[in-house]
Amino acid sequence: MTDIAVDMNGACPRTMADLATWLRGLPEGTSLPARGVADYLEGLVGKPVQAVPTADSQPRLPWAALLWLVPPATRVGIAELAEAVGRPKSWVYRHTSQTGECPRLPHRKLDGELVFVVGEVRPWLLEHEVVVVDHRLGGPRYSGRTPSSRRGRCAP
What we know:
Number of helices: 6
Helix content: 25-40%
Number of domains: 2
Low-confidence stretches: 1-5
Largest sheet: 3 strands, antiparallel
Strand content: 5-15%
Strand order of the largest sheet: 1-3-2
Mean pLDDT: 78
Distance between the termini: 65 Å
Structural class: alpha+beta
Order of helices and strands: HHHEHHEEHEE
Number of strands: 5
Oligomer: single chain
């Protein structure tokens, strides 16, 4: 063990509780070298100290899943919505254009940037998708717009 946790009497804490008591007994503002504390803790625990996971190291769900999981008031931008629907950004722009022939996505502008409220986008997606029922369940069936009603670049 290192000499980091040796008090003036030469006593070393042998447990985590002893170490906590020893640390509380130090004068306010005492600085200790982090590496020394980590080495000492490894000696008490008997295994290397693991790094604390950060938000960056946590797995992140894709927007295709998050779109249906986040609160309805969640606002997303063009990139997140494009990822969520599996389409390029140009698809999102086509569906927000006033002059285009595509069905318009519900959207807002904030400082000139397009913003989408998830709770408004979800029903729009459900209304505009074409659902094809598996042929094993009685043949192909469609709900919503039929494949023949798709218009070129506006196809979902």
